[in-house]
Design a protein that fits this description.
- The chain has a single domain, classed as Metal-dependent hydrolases (TIM Barrel, Alpha-Beta Barrel).
- The chain has seven helices and nine strands.
- α2 links the parallel β2 and β3.
Length: 221
Amino acid sequence: MAASNVWRVDLHLHTHYSRDCAVSPQRLIQAARERGLSRIAITDHNSIAGALEAQAIAPDFVIVGEEIKTDSGELLAYFIREEIPAGLSPEETIRRIREQGGVVGVSHPLDQLRREAMGRDVLLRILRQVDCLEVFNARVVWPPDNARALAFAREYGLPGTAGSDAHSVYEVGRAYVEVSPFAGPAQFLEALKQGQAVGRLSTPLVHLISTVNKLRRRSAR
């Protein structure tokens, strides 16, 4: 792909609608533009409120997404219109994403240090229902976990995604996919098939930011 035909897309970002983040949608958009990103997907925990607010500010820049906690790990949904509740099975969550014409991904799938990671056994169970797999997550502490996700995606022929998993402005754009321009979910998936995951790991200290934000929310309540 010629440089002029390449988009940089960070596919995993949070706003203050996630309880472990304090960044406003407007500030997130500003940071993403400053880092040279072409598109972003806002994927708050079990909420699309931040993504909808951001899309209202920048309709052609923001993909509405959600990071959904199922009863067996987390899924990523892209191009959805309605919020999907937490706590459902992966299969039921996927069904609800499909009802909206959305794209199904899996965040940090083989991260051994995160309880929310889906893990290999569940991945194999839902493999035929998944569209793409996050093969680089900038918040992964143990780098081989990203490498294992990439190997899994290649083994089973799944397109790879990448995201900063940003919960702070510092993290925005530390990981992204380089893809050809797209419009809508079908073109997005086609672009991913020829895409390239690019990224740098964030310092493990960023996890302290999430912890502090959670404590602040708890204290405010």
